[in-house]
């Protein structure tokens, strides 16, 4: 997939497999050193976290057990304590019955696809074995995660300016581990905080673990009713966030990403911005006016980080799902720092609507068409022949098929790396055109599926 290992507990992702994967990770890291292990609030994550501790320690790694926390908080612990890596037990934004594991290097970046392959080979080699009794790792239950996360964010934000705002905000952590972290960060930054979906619950009863503007209607209405300055909402493991402006309008992730990119480019006098192929054309506009350069990647954090590391002078990266990455922070999305940066932007512009007022308004549509895993490659190959008949200006096949038309509108068809769906993205300056392209893309995917079912 695009990120880590995902499946269902006692089905595709069993405790036994988690032990093998973490033992293989220990071998990958050389069988010594220290790693952090954390987990999200999903009911099945505690079982898998224990399995990961067992596998890692039997492979010779010492484990800093961080308990329940957001994924970026775990990575701040890795960075602060100079650990050799981490395992995060989370299925991120996927439905509550899913489980997952993410593996990280000591630089806080997720393992690359090639590194994942090494772990897979070790797991399926049949030769995995633990270390001797006197070399097994130790486990420390660590309680300093919140303190490390909070201090790290405060070091990177103009705290005095943020506090002078006294912003009134809504925080919606979606029953995730961010319930215990993000409101505290907001208060430390001088915000008056109003909460929604603010108790940790692995069933995600509020609005589910996924993050999309259509799921934030209640949050947006609450923001408007309170006359709040803005709202911040996160996903199920607390690495993605979307913002709602003072008028109750939910901003797409790449609108906010472009806002951050513009500020970083203006602050640093240029630089490279990295984003995946499904990003809005807005980033081209921003880089043109602010003197930046865009480098595109495949979708997913490992691919984004790979491009970030390949080019010098990368100052910021983001993806439209609401992941915002500052390379000097951690190599992952971080709502804590995003919140601080938004407050800095408010100091300058007064409101989120003012900050984005001169952006051209691109209209975007996202649709997920159910598609069995075993048919994804066949569907993609079938689509390759079909999209050339749409009279495109050109086609990009970096990740899926991105069909760009003469008017600048585009249609992207790509198999999800995390769910049994085929994703359809469209964008145009004309909303009707965006709708038409999305419907066209969806019908093409459904037509392809009918060929193979």
Q: Report low-confidence residues grouped into runs of 5 or more.
A: none
Number of domains: 4
CATH architecture of the largest domain: 3-Layer(aba) Sandwich
Name of the top-level CATH class of the largest domain: Alpha Beta
Q: Strand order within the widest sheet?
A: 1-5-4-2-3-6
Q: What is the overall silhouette?
A: globular
Task: Please state roughly what percent of the residues sit in beta strands, choosing from under 5%, 5-15%, 15-25%, 25-35%, 35-45% or over 45%.
Answer: 15-25%
Give the helix tally. 15
The value of Rg in angstroms is 22 Å
The profile of the biggest β sheet is: 6 strands, mixed
| Helix-residue proportion | 25-40%
Number of strands: 20
The CATH fourth-level homologous superfamily of the largest domain: Alpha-D-Glucose-1,6-Bisphosphate, subunit A, domain 3
Distance between termini?
23 Å
Cofactor: Mg(2+)
Domain Alpha-D-phosphohexomutase alpha/beta/alpha: 1-126, 148-248, 253-354
Organism: Thermoproteota archaeon
Family: Belongs to the phosphohexose mutase family.
Explained architecture:
Its cofactor is Mg(2+). Keywords: Isomerase, Magnesium, Metal-binding, Phosphoprotein. Pfam families: PGM_PMM_I, PGM_PMM_II, PGM_PMM_III, PGM_PMM_IV. This is Phosphoglucosamine mutase. GO terms for molecular function: intramolecular phosphotransferase activity; metal ion binding. With 453 residues, this protein is of the alpha/beta class. The protein has four domains: 138 residues, Alpha-D-Glucose-1,6-Bisphosphate, Chain A, domain 3; 100 residues, Alpha-D-Glucose-1,6-Bisphosphate, Chain A, domain 3; 103 residues, Alpha-D-Glucose-1,6-Bisphosphate, Chain A, domain 3 (3-Layer(aba) Sandwich), CATH 3.40.120.10; 90 residues, Alpha-D-phosphohexomutase, C-terminal domain (TATA-Binding Protein, 2-Layer Sandwich), CATH 3.30.310. Helix content is 38%, strand content 23%. The protein contains 15 helices and 20 strands. The protein has a six-stranded mixed beta sheet with strand order 1-5-4-2-3-6, sandwiched between helices. Helix 1 crosses helix 4, helix 6 packs across helix 12 and helix 9 runs parallel beside helix 10. It is globular and about 65 Å long.
């Amino acid at each position: 997939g695009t990120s880590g290992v995902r499946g269902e507990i006692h089905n595709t992702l069993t405790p036994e497999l988690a032990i093998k994967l973490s033992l293989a990770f220990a071998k990958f890291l050389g069988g010594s050193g220290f790693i952090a292990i954390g987990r999200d609030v999903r009911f099945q994550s505690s079982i898998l976290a224990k399995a990961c501790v067992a596998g890692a320690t039997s492979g010779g790694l010492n484990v800093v057990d961080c308990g329940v926390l957001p994924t970026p908080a775990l990575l701040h612990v890795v960075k602060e304590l100079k650990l050799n890596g981490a395992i995060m037990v989370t299925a991120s934004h996927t439905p509550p019955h899913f489980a997952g594991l993410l593996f990280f290097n000591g630089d806080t970046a997720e393992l690359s696809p090639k590194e994942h392959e090494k772990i897979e080979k070790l797991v399926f080699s049949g030769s995995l074995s633990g270390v001797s009794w006197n070399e097994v790792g130790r486990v420390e239950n660590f309680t300093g995660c919140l303190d490390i996360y909070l201090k790290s964010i405060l070091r990177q934000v103009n705290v005095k300016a943020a506090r002078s705002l006294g912003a009134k905000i809504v925080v919606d952590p979606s029953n995730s581990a961010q319930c215990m972290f993000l409101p505290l960060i907001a208060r430390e930054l001088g915000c008056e905080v109003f909460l929604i979906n603010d108790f940790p619950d692995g069933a995600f009863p509020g609005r589910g673990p996924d993050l999309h503007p259509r799921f934030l209607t209640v949050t947006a209405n609450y923001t408007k009713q309170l006359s709040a300055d803005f709202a911040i909402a996160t996903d199920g493991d607390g690495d993605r966030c979307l913002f709602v402006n003072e008028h109750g309008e939910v901003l797409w992730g790449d609108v906010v990403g472009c806002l951050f990119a513009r500020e970083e480019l203006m602050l640093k006098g240029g630089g490279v911005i990295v984003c995946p192929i499904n990003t809005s054309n807005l980033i081209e506009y921003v880089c043109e006016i602010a003197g930046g350069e865009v480098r595109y990647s495949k979708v997913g954090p490992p691919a984004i980080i790979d491009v970030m590391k390949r080019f010098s002078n990368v100052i910021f990266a983001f993806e439209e799902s609401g992941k915002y990455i500052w390379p000097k922070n951690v190599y992952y999305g971080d709502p804590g720092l995003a919140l601080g940066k938004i407050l800095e932007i408010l100091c300058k512009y007064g409101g989120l609507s003012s900050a984005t007022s001169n952006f051209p308004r691109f209209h975007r549509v996202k649709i997920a068409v159910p598609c069995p895993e075993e048919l994804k490659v066949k569907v993609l190959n079938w689509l390759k022949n079909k999209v050339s008949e749409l009279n495109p200006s050109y086609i990009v096949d970096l990740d899926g098929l991105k069909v760009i038309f003469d008017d600048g509108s585009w249609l992207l068809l790509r198999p999800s790396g995390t769910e049994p769906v085929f994703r359809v993205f469209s964008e145009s300056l004309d909303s009707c055109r965006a709708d038409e392209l999305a419907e066209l893309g969806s019908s093409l995917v459904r037509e392809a599926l009918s060929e193979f079912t």
